[in-house]
Description:
Layout: H1 2-15, E1 25-30, E2 37-41, E3 51-57, E4 65-71, E5 75-77, E6 87-96, E7 99-100, E8 104-105, E9 109-110, H2 111-114, E10 121-127, E11 130-136, H3 145-148, E12 153-160, E13 163-173, E14 177-180, E15 188-197, E16 203-204, E17 211-214, H4 223-260, H5 268-279, H6 281-288, E18 296-298, H7 306-311, E19 318-320, E20 326-328, H8 330-339, E21 346-348
Antiparallel strand pairs: 1-2, 2-5, 3-4, 3-6, 6-7, 6-8, 6-9, 10-11, 11-14, 12-13, 12-15, 15-16, 15-17, 18-21, 19-20
Helix pairs in contact: 5-6
Amino acid sequence: MMAFHLLITLGFRFISAESLLPQPQNVEVVSYNMDAIVKWDAPLTSLKNLTYTAEYRMPSTAFFHTVCKAIKEHRCDFGDLPSCHGNYQFRVRIELEGNTSSWVKTPNFSLKKGTVIGPPNVTLVTKGGAVEVNIQNPVLKISSLKEAYSKVEYNIRYWKKTDKKDVFEREMVTEQRVKLKPLEPNTRYCVQVQVYIPMPHNNTGQYSKAVCVMSTPNNTTTDRERRLSEGLVVSLVTVAVAFPLLLLVPWIIYKGKRFLHPKVKLPEHLKQHLIDSHQYPYLASQITSPLQEKYDHISALCEENPYNVLTDIPEDNLYHVDSGVSVEMPEYYNAVAENANFDMPYKNI
């Protein structure tokens, strides 16, 4: 009988092991720009060294993914969830020395509906009496604002810095560049912008910090525009001067290399001629000058009838040489010499 009672007692303790530890309190999901952080409070208990485990799942699946295990903090950052679309369910429990509490589950949570959209980045530019508002969407943890929502709108409010009570508003603006006009000239205006997601999500974001600027009269150029125009002109002039010079530098280098190291090689005999002409400049000058032939013209005359004697010499009996001198054949010359004595005057030509 006692054994049966002991068995029942042990079974009861095993079955109710989870209920021995209290549950976490005030479990909630906080989301900012598509992140997901689960927060909770510790239970009212005297137990110490409690740890926590947090998990999540999508309703379409039955399996939970553990993100934070055996932590002592009262929050768990789930980081980058798989998608910004759909719903998520989160749960947390307490653990102590092998014992655990029961899970505390959150309702299904939609990031697109439940997240808080942060303020956009706003810059102002004054143009011809109007103020141009440039809006840059906040950065999300998952995806981008345009990808997460099919339609994104903006609410703009602006006022004179000297009169904060009189506020002007422009709602449901779809453009990210908006001109505010008419404005009073030479007046400082302040602007704030918030993101608005229409139905079915109906999510209103946070307003940006107030940005102020001085309006200008109509058809006037601001100092910023003037500086931009001057900088643009200087840049164009610099590029116009520097670009041709940059193109000429490689060409000059190329020509210099070609001049110092020509590709065409001189023939060997011309190289030798140049070397010889360098060693013997006088001889080279004599060789390169045109050759002139010099010769003496000799005439043989007979005292009695020199012309008859000479003119009777047949042409075959004359001997011609390169020096320009015509000489009769030796046999005939001896015969004439025996019969007549004559002088042989000559002259140089």
